[in-house]
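[09:14] KT: can someone run the structure on this one? pasting the chain below
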Amino acid sequence: MTTYEYLISNSSPVPAEKPQPVELKLPADLKQDLLWGDTSLGQSSVLQRVNGESDGKESVYVGILVPHDGEVITVRDVESGDVIPEGIRIYDDTQEKDAVCRLDTGYFIIEMCRGTGMGEGASKWGIRHFMAKAENVDLLSSGNNAIGGFYGPFFTPENGLINPPEHVIADVDLIENGPNMSRYRLAGRIPDGLLPELQGKRFTVTFTFYRDLDLFDRVYDVDHFETEIDGRSVVDRITVGDEFEGGEGELVFDRFASYNPIPYRSGDPYAGFLKDEVRSTLSDETEVTERFAFFKELLDRDLENAHWDLYWRLFSHWENAIEPSALNRRLGHVRSLAHRASDLNDRPWVVSKDAIDVSAHEEQTVFPASSSCTAEFDSRTGRCMIWLTTQSSGAFQIVQRPQSGWVNWGTNGENECPALPIGTKIRTIYGPFGDRWRDRADESRFDGVRVAPRLS
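[09:31] RB: done, structure tokens below
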């Protein structure tokens, strides 16, 4: 074949150190599954064709390189002496019964699940086990939480708390696979809740994992919708939620930070109002169904320390524990109280230049404002998770609760109001970055590396 020369441009403010996925858009008539790239600085990489992004105008290939600004990459056919890496290993032996596969990316061990649709924490589709191999710590050791779920606007009081990750069994397909990357697509139909405009909606979540890299990418697509949550218009915005667990008394992350300082509020009145309504419902016991007895038995044992899932599940339209008219009335009461509380001035907005010690705040919860680059990290070990998004989330809910060890990163404001535009790409980076996490984020920003044909 004819060789092609491309120029790499890297606008990162920090020197290139880490290998990155590097995308090349080559002529459409190149159909080979694999090509090869040699660079002017002595690097080389197999180039994997991304069939789902290639069309009649161009063929898209992905290599893995340390992308230096001004470096030239020459693209050619694979030759007999070129060593093709094995790529991501895919295993069938898994911990969870609903797991699709266990992936060894070289850097991560990841277990991807389709969910069971049973409405419990262990029912969720998405990533239910996640470990960096060098660290050997599973951030989701119980299998009762997940990375990658999305919730609002469906998981809201307005819609009867429909929980897509727990209430749906996802169809999972491997749509790209090669020596550099594997891509999985999860798809399903969201159960109907109380709001007619949110009924009949379908979704896809596409995860992309890379060989030997400390990051993965994903994107969410949901059928178009327009609704109102927390008294605000919501058009094609969702709540993405990543959960982590360290066990009782242990937090895998104990700080939250944004790349640039942003204001935040502490506390979560909505959670308290929902709990109060649970107490009222248990004492009243009117307009309930046979399913109600299941929740009453569990909640009567220890209401104050019951798992949060039991509170919201009692009021979920999907569970059918309360008659529809009573459910609407009770959730309406919670909404009216929560809407008013979120607009009061008793919880000031605070701007901190330092990372936020979330567990020191009321209800171990903070609601930060808009950002496109955030992180949660452990102040003792330097363990750190970074989230980069191609569009800013308008708000976040961050929970770091030592009592249960549960940690959450969510793209929603107060009262479950979703804030992340559909179609936003999310890049998640994990490693021992500590207080250097901003430099690590700068290395792997979506728009930091560009590759274009070299002009002679």
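[09:33] KT: thanks! Residues 89-267+347-443 form a domain with the Beta-galactosidase; Chain A, domain 5 fold (CATH 2.70.98.10).
[09:34] RB: yep, looked fine to me
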